[in-house]
Amino acid sequence: MLNPVSRLEKNFVRLLARCENYVPQREPNEWRLEQYVKNLEERLAELKKMNTCQPSKDTLAEYSRRVEFLRGVVEAEKLPTITEKALANQLLSHGTFTSASNKIHQQTKAHYLREMREELLGTKDHQNAEGIRLRQINANSTQDDLDAVMQYHNSMQEKVAQEMMSLVQNLKQNSLLAGHIIRKDTEVLQKSSSMADDRYSRLKVESEKLEVYAKKSCNWCVWIMLAMVCLTFMWMIVFIRLFPKR
């Protein structure tokens, strides 16, 4: 059964689709995109606070990922160097939401790579004939520089991936060690509990024996006292008979 869609969600989805379609058509560093993304974030926060007709958790998570992707595109454009922009764009989550997200990522990636190539080749600063001649002479070296930059970015990504794998392995080892310690403590606790139960049962048996013994000893004392009283009484009668008053 489909959940009812609120008017706020309809407006949010419409604005989100408009932003995703607007990004490939706009000029770089255009200020309106940031305002659109800010408006999307505010509406998404309102959607999360709704009590009635609220979207499902999966739908909200998808909306959040798409808005975060657009925010990442905006923040990447604010970085000072083209190298940082390209690296930030490369680290963005993409490709799993919509075709518009994939299109945005591919377009921004191509744009930043083109700007990096132009910056390395000097097309922005050397438009005259002398610059063209020098660029032709140093074409091999600039291509090597471009390859070095790309290799540097690849090595940085591999380093980050290795660090993440190392962190995951450390977390796994720590969790296994913690589980082993918890199992040991559980075994010790179970042994202590079983020993306590055993000692309690033994103490109960000994208490019952002591109680029975105490009852028996008390009965013997009573019988002995009664026997002594009877003997004393009989001895007094015999004494009176043997030595009557004169």
UniProtKB/TrEMBL annotation:
<dbReference type="GO" id="GO:0031201">
    <property type="term" value="C:SNARE complex"/>
</dbReference>
<keyword id="KW-0472">Membrane</keyword>
<feature type="transmembrane region" description="Helical">
    <location>
        <begin position="222"/>
        <end position="243"/>
    </location>
</feature>
<keyword id="KW-0653">Protein transport</keyword>
<keyword id="KW-0812">Transmembrane</keyword>
<protein>
    <recommendedName>
        <fullName>Vesicle transport protein USE1</fullName>
    </recommendedName>
</protein>
<dbReference type="GO" id="GO:0005484">
    <property type="term" value="F:SNAP receptor activity"/>
</dbReference>
<comment type="similarity">
    <text>Belongs to the USE1 family.</text>
</comment>
<keyword id="KW-0813">Transport</keyword>
<dbReference type="GO" id="GO:0005789">
    <property type="term" value="C:endoplasmic reticulum membrane"/>
</dbReference>
<dbReference type="Pfam" id="PF09753">
    <property type="entry name" value="Use1"/>
</dbReference>
<dbReference type="GO" id="GO:0006890">
    <property type="term" value="P:retrograde vesicle-mediated transport, Golgi to endoplasmic reticulum"/>
</dbReference>
<keyword id="KW-0931">ER-Golgi transport</keyword>
<dbReference type="InterPro" id="IPR019150">
    <property type="entry name" value="Vesicle_transport_protein_Use1"/>
</dbReference>
<keyword id="KW-0256">Endoplasmic reticulum</keyword>
<dbReference type="GO" id="GO:0015031">
    <property type="term" value="P:protein transport"/>
</dbReference>
<keyword id="KW-1133">Transmembrane helix</keyword>
